[in-house]
Amino acid sequence: MNLIERNPTLREMLATGRTVAGNGESIALSSFLDGTSAEALFRQVTSLRPAVVVEVGMANGISTLAILSALEANGAGRLISVDPNQSTQWRDSGRTAVKRAGLAHRHTVMEEPDYLALPRLLEAGTKVDLSYIDGWHTFDYALVDFWYLDKMTPKDGVVAFNDCGWPAVAKAIDFVLSHRRYAEFGVGLPKAYARPHGLRSLLSAIRHGRVGEYFLQRQDRYFRKLEAWEPAHDFYARF
Ligand SMILES: C[S@@+](CC[C@H](N)C(=O)[O-])C[C@H]1O[C@@H](n2cnc3c(N)ncnc32)[C@H](O)[C@@H]1O
């Protein structure tokens, strides 16, 4: 059974383009993961069977429902969602969708920014088998998300990024591939997004043998950790 068949709340949200706020009011969905990427995320969680998943960026809760539906299908695992704006900008719609779908028992929301929540998870000794990075999409925030999540990710764990066609996210991924040991793997998503051009980033793509990615990106990209490795203190690589 796929995600849409499994989760009537999500099916209704994607079909109507609307969801329900914490006060019961109907509101429009915005800034959410498309159905194809949500199905791919659901498939990954069912096949990887993670004990702990962290997502950065919850919004109306589409990715949240995809992950939780898969954990429920697995019969194990929990999701921690980090989003400082859940009760304000998003009017508790993500939390409400999770409750409506009957999945709250596998879910924790940390309503604070990534740069405060992720160090606390690290300090608590959290191990994260799968991360989904879809928060504030500037290079620094995407990098901070990866930097902390990598420290909590064991070998063979997976880190995924949304909106990989955005130049700032693509640049953060260039860091992943040049400063850590991760390998990208396909999850059946088509390449659909052009990365904006610029001579410097084109030269960088040529230097790293990634010209194809420069011109066309998948919206979501998945990376498996090959080993826990960090460069020496005097390492430098252009990326
Ligand atoms: C593109 S939306 C997430 C969409 C969601 N993953 C989905 O599939 O419906 C980006 C989210 O990042 C959140 N965000 C913004 N700044 C953040 C920060 N510093 N830390 C964590 N999340 C942040 C926003 O509140 C917003 O919910």
Can you characterise this structure?
It is a single chain. This protein has one domain (3-227): Rossmann fold (3-Layer(aba) Sandwich). The chain contains ten helices and nine strands. The protein has helices spanning 3-6, 8-16, 35-48, 62-74, 93-100, 114-123, 139-152, 167-179, 199-207, 211-215; strands spanning 18-20, 26-28, 52-56, 78-82, 107-110, 130-133, 158-161, 181-185, 221-227. The strands form two sheets. A seven-stranded mixed sheet has the order 5-4-3-6-7-9-8, with helices on both faces. The protein has a two-stranded antiparallel sheet with strand order 1-2. It is globular. The N and C termini lie far apart (41 Å). The mean pLDDT is 93. It binds S-adenosylmethionine. Residues 31-33, 56-63, 82-85, 89-90, 113-114, 134-136, 141 line the site of S-adenosylmethionine (SAM).
CATH fold-level label: Rossmann fold
Low-confidence stretches: none
Quickly give the structural class. Answer: alpha/beta
Task: Provide the residue-averaged pLDDT.
Answer: 93
CATH architecture: 3-Layer(aba) Sandwich
Helix-strand topology string? HHEEHEHEHEHEHEHEHHE
Regarding CATH, which class? Alpha Beta
Bound ligand species: S-adenosylmethionine
Beta fraction:
15-25%
Number of domains: 1
CATH superfamily: Vaccinia Virus protein VP39
Strands of the largest sheet, in order across it?
5-4-3-6-7-9-8
Largest sheet: 7 strands, mixed
| Intertermini distance | 41 Å
